[in-house]
Amino acid sequence: TAVQGVEIQQALRKEDGEHVSEAFQLLAALSDALQVDISDMLNRTNERQETLDSYVSSLTQYFNAAKLQTELLAQEQREKDAVAKAKRAAATTISRGLSRARSAKDYVTVSQKQEQLIQAQTEQTTADAEVREVKTTLSVMNELIDVTSDRLSAIAENREIILSGLSVVKVPGIDDLGLIIERNGRKSSGATP
What is the per-residue pLDDT for 18? Predict the structure, then answer.
């Protein structure tokens, strides 16, 4: 699930990517907001409408921040992809030079090229790991954006039911009762189309 993805990302977190660090903070906050049990939250207050409005406002702010963050992460991914590609090309060039030096039995150059190749491969591995980290973070962010969008839509479509404290239970045959109305490819509970 998206929440598990956030937890995994937090465990693997590195401190070197500014956008990635910001993204982790946002992922954690958004994940926490999505875990809120709305019915329980509203049952603990006398100001149900204000509490729901506040929750929706916060969730909307996180949603908008997450959309902006995905743009920043996408740019960072493009930059890191370019760096990784350059590191890969450098390692390949050194490897070819090493092969030529071996063929020429130039062992002084072989020794130098071997050290250079180890360094270049280390840099390439680091660059590839950074690319994977940004891609994974971006993927989890996009998943949470989808979940948040669905939750905001569900709250908007079912606001009266939520505020009244009622629940709709999905059981076989409920569709036949006309309590679930299809809107924009999504089902919502409500009495009006």
Answer: 55
Length of the chain in terms of residues written? 193
Alpha-carbon dihedral of residues 142, 19, 130, 15, nearest 10 degrees? -120
Q: Kindly tell me if the per-residue pLDDT of 136 is higher than 80.
A: yes
Distance of CA 164 to the CA centre of its chain: 33
Q: Which residue has the tokens 């989890």?
A: 140
Structure tokens that stand for 93 in this block? 């060039």
- State the Cα–Cα distance between residues 39 and 182, nearest whole angstrom: 23
The residues, any chain, with a CB within 8 Å of residue 14's CB and separated by 6 or more, are 20, 130, 133
Considering only CA atoms, which of 146, 129, 186 is closest in space to residue 2?
146
Q: Collapse the DSSP code of 73 into the 3-class scheme (helix H, G, I; strand E, B; otherwise coil) and give the result.
A: helix
pTM over 0.90: no
What is the rounded (10 degree) CA torsion for 131, 8, 140, 123? 0
pLDDT on residue 169: 74
Which pLDDT score is estimated for 66? Answer: 95
Question: What is the amino acid identity at position 7?
Answer: E
